[in-house]
Amino acid sequence: MEAHGEDLRKETGNADLVAQIKRDYWQARLTERERALCEFAEKLTRTPSAMQPTDLDRLRRAGLSDRDILDAVQVIAYFNYINRVADALGVDPEPEMHAAWLARQRGFGSADTTDGDLT
């Protein structure tokens, strides 16, 4: 999640928005298109058997083309797949990612991971 958040921060130039999305995307100031994608990703992740044609219609109304939707589905499905593989095999996150997550939990904006000690 850390690497993806950093990529989004670089793409948008808006660290506050990224922090809001990571905390609770429902509270973030998103465009209709961004919110539709977030809701679609959440539904596909949590309840894939509940997906309906109306879910695709909502994305189209929000301005996504069929190609955009295909790309989104492939990315969402890939991350669901790879996260499940990592969880099943007990793969730990990279130390830098874990350190940054711990630092945020303790209320710091970023982590100095040079020595690996956050205490």
Q: On the 0-100 scale, what is the average pLDDT?
A: 84
Largest sheet descriptor? none
CATH class of the largest domain: Mainly Alpha
User: What's the shape?
Assistant: globular
Please give a structural write-up.
The protein has 119 residues and is mostly helical. The protein has two domains: 29 residues, no CATH class; 89 residues, AhpD-like, CATH 1.20.1290. Helix 3 packs antiparallel against helix 4. The C terminus is likely disordered.
Key words describing this protein structure:
119 residues, mainly alpha, AhpD-like, 2 domains
Kindly summarize this structure in a few lines.
This protein is mainly alpha-helical and 119 residues long. Helices cover 67% and strands 0% of the residues.
Strand and helix layout:
Blueprint: H1 2-12, H2 15-24, H3 32-46, H4 53-61, H5 66-89, H6 95-105
Helix pairs in contact: 1-2, 3-4, 3-5
